[in-house]
Design a protein that fits this description.
Largest sheet: 2 strands, antiparallel
Shape: globular
Strand content: 5-15%
Number of helices: 3
Oligomer: single chain
Number of strands: 4
Structural class: alpha+beta
Helix content: 25-40%
Number of domains: 1
């Protein structure tokens, strides 16, 4: 794989209706077999494929039609410690 860093796969925080979790191994094998410098996933859901990949290309873009999903990932990206503190108090 050209210009890709190995990363440790992560289990998604939650399931998602219509998610790709069950297909993730098959999809990731296809992604790994394809030479690419970037990765885009327009319907990320809870990241069933995105988070389970074992290599990270130079550029990654994730999105979802659900504003709640997009907001969830934005919170994880920008406010992770505060998010974890909130979960501890629930």
């Amino acid at each position: 794989m050209v210009n890709q860093q190995p990363v440790a796969p992560v289990t998604p925080a939650a399931g998602y209706i219509g998610g790709k979790r069950i297909l993730s191994k098959t999809v990731i094998a296809k992604i790994n077999a394809t030479d690419h410098d970037g990765y885009a996933e327009p319907f990320v859901g809870m990241g069933g494929v995105f988070l389970r990949r074992d290599h990270q290309p130079k550029t990654e873009v994730i999105n979802d039609i659900s504003g709640d999903v997009a907001n969830f990932f934005r919170i994880l990206q920008r406010h992770f410690p505060q998010f974890m503190d909130t979960l501890r108090f629930q």
